[in-house]
Design a protein that fits this description.
Helix content is 45%, strand content 18%. It is an alpha+beta fold and 96 residues long.
Length: 96
């Protein structure tokens, strides 16, 4: 398989995420109103997401797809950590 770039990887991840039906997505543990009036917060585990706060650019144009963009980056960071952790374990075992 030919290597792909980070940009191509993010596009692929975002395409997969966008193609999921709503029924396949996790449901939040709870949804509550922000006490400062900034809109609803969806809670997944210990992470809360302000549902109407995703924006883009200097003019702060509403951009709900910002969550998908963050998810693709988080997936890549998770993969990097997986590989670095595996290497660290291998290096540690080699020094025993």
């Amino acid at each position: 398989m030919e290597p792909i770039t980070l940009i191509e990887a993010r596009k692929a991840i975002e395409t997969i995420l966008a193609g999921l039906p709503d029924s396949a997505l996790p449901l939040p543990d709870r949804i509550e109103e922000d006490e400062r009036g900034k809109g609803p917060i969806a809670w997944f585990g210990g992470h809360g997401y302000h549902l109407t706060s995703a924006t883009r650019g200097a003019d702060r144009t509403p951009n709900p797809e910002g969550y998908r963009s963050s998810a693709s980056w988080d997936a890549l960071v998770g993969e990097a950590c997986t590989r670095m952790s595996a290497k660290a374990y291998a290096d540690k075992a080699a020094t025993r």
